[in-house]
Design goal:
The complex is a heterodimer of chains A (232) and B (254).
Chain A: H1 2-43, H2 49-64, H3 67-77, H4 87-113, H5 116-124, H6 129-159, H7 171-181, H8 184-216
Chain B: E1 5-14, E2 17-27, E3 32-36, H1 43-50, E4 58-63, E5 66-67, E6 70-73, E7 76-79, H2 82-89, E8 92-95, H3 107-117, H4 123-136, H5 152-164, E9 170-174, H6 182-198, E10 202-206, H7 210-216, E11 219-224, E12 227-232, H8 234-239, H9 244-253
Parallel strand pairs in B: 3-10, 3-11, 8-9, 9-10
Antiparallel strand pairs in B: 1-2, 1-4, 4-5, 6-7, 11-12
Helix pairs in contact in B: 3-4, 3-5, 4-5, 5-6
Classes of the chains: A mainly alpha (232), B alpha/beta (254).
The complex binds adenosine-5'-diphosphate and magnesium ion.
């Protein structure tokens, strides 16, 4: 055991670098995924049919093809067309597009879950489409979105390990390196623990946001899927 | 003066199901008309058509002589653009059976939101008007609270204040007391009587409160199967209905 701990201590700087790469992929990927999900989620409920089709095609494409293959395309194929990007950026974009496609469904589902009476109440006050969405529907859908995003974010954190495929020395890679100097069980246990801690921190952050958002809507802190606005 | 609302050959189908067909009627400026009739006779659909929450499948609705959603040009029926529809819709307000207050804002913000973001009123002006209206419906002291803390009757009074804040020419009331506990109905009706007494807003009212209908409406229209069975002064229709169907309906709700 002491050898294991010594090896761990020696490996700390490298593990730190690994964690840093994983966090960059997580934060960058989550940011891109958020933007992608909002854009395509809103397009998917647009009154203009071609925009809805566009959204369906894009979302289905990125959900339906493997993240690893998407990553290979971005990293190995795009340079053939003269577009080459730094590996971390490539990872961020691939993660962002893939999880953003899932996120678009979260956005669409959450907006549709807002009570129909809220749209009608806003229309009866003659609010424009944009005002209705921005001031009435979105703030209510947001609460529902946060619990969906929470799931996706945890999946994205674990998904960042695909960075290994394009040679990034992320947390997963460093854990594998650690295994050379320690027992396999020890190295992978450390790996589980570190991923778990990262996921825990992000998940906790989102849950705090969700709680605050629920309080603003006058909803009880508990069950996430009570339809917003239904009883008002 | 043109009628404030004119239905001309209005048809509404949901899929294959025809709810209204060839419906014609007028509402004069300042007139308050109560629609009665059995459940499923099309009363809600009529109000929702006026509020543009449903799209009519044929015919025309004219508001103040202007087309609401469809215009006739060279004998052709054309759909108006959303901008034009909104300009007409500005004159129409609606209160719903289930209130539809916005849970993401306080009571006063419910009443000021559209004043600011639709009518372009200043925040101060909107707030003053909102507080005056909340005062009128007896809820000024609840202005800063969250709507979820109000009783059903209080929510409905806020919804009425919210609609009035837009200074509508036409107010649509769809069974606004049907979701309330019986002891809360009186306060809401009192507020509406007050609005009827102190404004000249035209109203289309759907209600089962016959005493209220008799007191505030100038005209009662009895519907069945999407057709007007009979119409006239409330005293005539409600006290001496000429049609068997009206009699049966009135008996059924007493
Ligand atoms: N969105 C809808 N889709 C299909 N049918 C509907 C819809 N809304 C109303 N209807 C039908 O239209 C008819 C009239 O309904 P409604 O206007 O609600 O009647 P009322 O308000 O007089 O009870 C009913 O048969 C109802 O089932
Ligand atoms: Mg009805």
């Amino acid at each position: 055991m002491t050898e294991n701990l010594e090896a761990l201590r020696d490996a700390l700087p490298r593990l730190g670098e690994g964690v840093s790469i994983t966090l960059q992929l997580t934060l960058g990927g989550a940011l891109v995924a958020f933007l992608v999900s909002v854009v395509f989620g809103l397009l998917s409920i647009s009154p203009a049919a071609p925009l809805r089709w566009l959204s369906t095609i894009v979302v289905e494409f990125f959900r339906g093809t493997s993240l690893v293959v998407q990553l290979f395309w971005l990293y190995y194929v795009m340079p053939l067309f003269g577009v080459s990007m730094d590996a971390v950026l490539t990872g961020v974009i691939a993660l962002g597009l893939n999880y953003g496609a899932y996120g678009a469904e979260v956005v669409r589902g959450s907006i549709n879950a807002v009570d129909k009476g809220q749209w009608e109440g806003a229309t009866a006050l003659n609010m424009s489409r944009v005002t209705r969405m921005r001031r009435i529907i979105w703030p209510q859908a947001w609460v529902l979105m946060l619990s969906g995003y929470n799931n996706l974010l945890v999946m994205l954190i674990k998904g960042t390990a695909v960075a290994l495929f394009i040679g990034l020395q992320d947390l997963g890679y460093q854990i594998d390196e650690l295994r050379i100097d320690t027992t396999t069980i020890f190295a992978y246990s450390i790996g589980l623990l570190l991923y778990y801690l990262i996921a825990l921190v992000f998940s906790f952050g989102l849950r705090v946001l969700e709680k605050r958002a629920r309080r603003r809507l006058g909803l009880p802190a508990g069950s996430a899927h009570a339809s917003a606005g239904a009883a008002l | 003066m043109p009628p404030v609302i004119r239905f001309e050959g209005v048809q509404k189908k949901f899929g294959d199901h025809t709810v209204l067909s060839g419906l014609n009627f007028d509402v004069a400026p300042g007139e308050r008309v109560t629609l009665i009739g059995p459940s499923g006779s099309g009363k809600t659909t009529i109000l929702r058509l006026v509020m543009t929450l449903e799209e009519l499948t044929d015919g025309y609705i004219w508001i103040d002589g202007k087309p609401l959603t469809h215009d006739r040009r060279d004998g052709k029926r054309i759909r108006l653009r959303e901008k034009q529809v909104a300009a007409t819709r500005k004159q129409i307000g609606m209160v719903f059976q289930h209130f539809n207050l916005f849970p993401n804002m306080s009571v006063i913000d419910n009443v000021t939101e559209a004043q600011v973001h639709v009518l372009g009123r200043g925040k101060e002006e909107a707030r003053d008007r909102g507080l005056a209206l909340l005062d009128q419906v007896g809820l000024k002291d609840r202005a800063e609270e969250h709507p979820s803390r109000l009783s059903g009757g209080q929510k409905q009074r806020v919804a009425i204040a919210r609609a009035l804040a837009m200074d509508p020419k036409i107010l649509l009331l769809d069974e606004v007391t049907s979701a309330l506990d019986p002891e809360l109905v009186g306060d809401v009706l009192a507020v509406l009587r007050d609005v009827a007494d102190t404004t000249d807003i035209s109203m289309l009212i759907v209600t089962h409160e016959m005493q209220f209908a008799r007191d505030v409406s100038h005209k009662v229209m009895m519907f069945d199967g999407g057709q007007i069975v009979e119409q006239g002064a409330p005293t005539d229709i409600l006290a001496n209905p000429t049609h068997e169907r009206t009699r049966k309906f009135l008996d059924s709700i007493l």
